Amino acid sequence: MVTSMRLTIGMPSFNNFTEVFFTVQALRMYHNLKDCEILVIDNFGDGELEKFIKSNGNGQVRYEKYINGSGPAFAKNKVFELAKGEMVLCIDSHILLKPGALDKIPITDDFITGPLVYNNLIDYVGSWKPLLRG
To answer: For the chain, which residues score pLDDT lower than 50?
Structure first.
């Protein structure tokens, strides 16, 4: 019997080892990742990133290299394509999540976004307008 995991936290990376390092470590330190995987899609071919994940991922962080496509949309699509979780949380590699933020994510087919808290930790946004900005 094959059982799936509850959550995949996926992030694209293009030559940004430092951001991925801190996000992965913060996820591992401040969140209950039982029944969860962290998936990093490397769209650059960063040997330092690959080595870090393979040496420190403890089977919970998965590294996948796809350098044959370009742009963040390509890498984000790979997150959804390769995710093993029933739910997928796709984040940029510089995003830090508040402790407890993962505890109550429901299993749903809906597309959920936000909220985004700004650097001042006061202002936030719950959704974006569907338009391209300069």
So the answer is: 1-2
